[in-house]
Amino acid sequence: GSSWNKCDFESNPCKVLPEFNLQPGWIRRNGRSGMGPPYSDHNGNESAYFLSLSSEMQSSSAALRTSVFLPTDEEHLCQIRFHYWVGQMGRTLMVGLQKLSEDTVTNIWQVSGELRNQWNVNTITINSTEKFEVIFLGMVETQRQGESVAIDDITFSEGC
């Protein structure tokens, strides 16, 4: 709907992902960056921007946190739709839910790299009785060139 809040990464700031520039593992880039696949965003545009894991990652995982969302209710569930790319070997993208009263992150969705180098789309629905954050976690088992995890066009419904 028109009330969805969209992060397409074309313009730098994104209200819902306030700190993505400060996360050392995620970078904003396009398909012409010379960093390997993906060579375009999910629409096939080589010059359009998306987020991907940096090949210079210091650790084996990099988290991307949303701002804090208010509790959901029956009429307004929080739906998050996003496009994702996971290179073949040893790459995982996980989406987690962190309620503010808890230290642990609950894994609500994940995919590992058996996908053959293509963009896919997914929608997750979140039901939470308390304030929460959503975390996109990119993980690499081995540092291999040319196999990435990328995210594009994250949209948040008005229930978020």
Automatic annotation (TrEMBL):
It comes from the Eukaryota. Gene3D superfamilies: 2.60.120.200. InterPro entries: ConA-like_dom_sf (IPR013320), MAM_dom (IPR000998), MAM_domain-containing (IPR051560). GO terms for cellular component: membrane. It holds the Pfam family MAM. Residues 5-160 form the MAM domain. This is MALR1 protein. It comes from Melospiza melodia.
